[in-house]
Amino acid sequence: MIKTIVIGPRGKMGRLITQIAAASEELVVVAGVAPKGRDYIGQDLGQVASLGYDLGVPVVDDLTEVIEICDVIIDFSTKEMGLDVLQLAKKYKKALVCGTTGFTSAEKKLFRNAGEEIPLLYAANTSKLVNVMNQLLQTAAAVIGNETDIEIVEMHDRWKKDAPSGTAKEMGELIAAELGKTLSEVATYGREGVGEREPGTIGFHSVRMGDTPSSHTVLFSGLGERLEITHHSTDWRGFAKGACDCAVFLAKQPSGYYGVADILNK
């Protein structure tokens, strides 16, 4: 069994990851790690994650108390906590699955560099279906990207902090790479005022409303026809299942920087 620590077990993703990992035949959850000051520190992880039964493992607020007993860490917490977890994973040589978004380019480079020392999988989105969509986007961009207008529309709940979403940015990066560009060269965010669309750009539009879990649509529009590639999620369970699949995969890998595509293509 792969001994797993869940970071942020009270969050929407942390709860689902804990529930799915607890039911897994390959993972065993050995601890949860929460931010300092939470009133559930010291309680049983099963109760904190709303399983309705005890798991017999604690929720702590100091990763160093439990990190040595794990094989892999799953982190869907906050940007600030994620950077701290990364440093400790490197120090203790533990595999790390990180699905937290909102990192700057320089911070993302820290994760990529960490792959030289530990098995590390970073994914803005751990859904297998989203990553199949990414492969479709690369194919479409390679064939028609230079002759169509490309727009990305993403929807999330009212509480999401970053915009565009990490998933939308990742999609844009994949498309831009197929066009021989970097995203910073071609991205435009929102649109207002007077003027025609600038050719060769990738437009981003972020919608925040209600409790919408996640929705991404990429449009490739020519004259007289339009291709739309879309993924909708009705809840976060697909992302949590994907995160657990990533943990199972990563625990068996040598040091390196991995993505969900590595699981799809294995």
UniProtKB/TrEMBL annotation:
Q: Which residue ranges does the record assign to the Dihydrodipicolinate reductase C-terminal domain?
A: 130-264
Residues forming the Dihydrodipicolinate reductase N-terminal domain are 2-125
EC no. given is 1.17.1.8
Keywords in UniProt for this one? Amino-acid biosynthesis, Cytoplasm, Diaminopimelate biosynthesis, Lysine biosynthesis, NAD, NADP, Oxidoreductase
Which parts of the sequence bind NADP(+)?
Answer: 38
**Which transformation does this protein catalyse, written as a reaction?**
(S)-2,3,4,5-tetrahydrodipicolinate + NADP(+) + H2O = (2S,4S)-4-hydroxy-2,3,4,5-tetrahydrodipicolinate + NADPH + H(+); (S)-2,3,4,5-tetrahydrodipicolinate + NAD(+) + H2O = (2S,4S)-4-hydroxy-2,3,4,5-tetrahydrodipicolinate + NADH + H(+)
Identify the catalytic residues: 156, 160
Summarize where NAD(+) binds, as residue positions: 8-13, 99-101, 123-126
Q: What CDD domains does the entry give?
A: DHDPR_N
Whether Oxidoreductase counts among this entry's keywords is yes
Pfam family, any one? DapB_C
Q: Name one GO molecular function term.
A: 4-hydroxy-tetrahydrodipicolinate reductase
Under SUPFAM superfamilies, the record lists: Glyceraldehyde-3-phosphate dehydrogenase-like, C-terminal domain, NAD(P)-binding Rossmann-fold domains
Q: Which N-terminal stretch is annotated as signal sequence?
A: none
Provide the protein's localization: Cytoplasm
Q: What does this protein do?
A: Catalyzes the conversion of 4-hydroxy-tetrahydrodipicolinate (HTPA) to tetrahydrodipicolinate.
Its quaternary organisation is: Homotetramer.
Supply the PANTHER family for this chain.
4-HYDROXY-TETRAHYDRODIPICOLINATE REDUCTASE 1, CHLOROPLASTIC-RELATED, DIHYDRODIPICOLINATE REDUCTASE
Similarity comment: family membership: Belongs to the DapB family.
UniProt name for this protein: 4-hydroxy-tetrahydrodipicolinate reductase
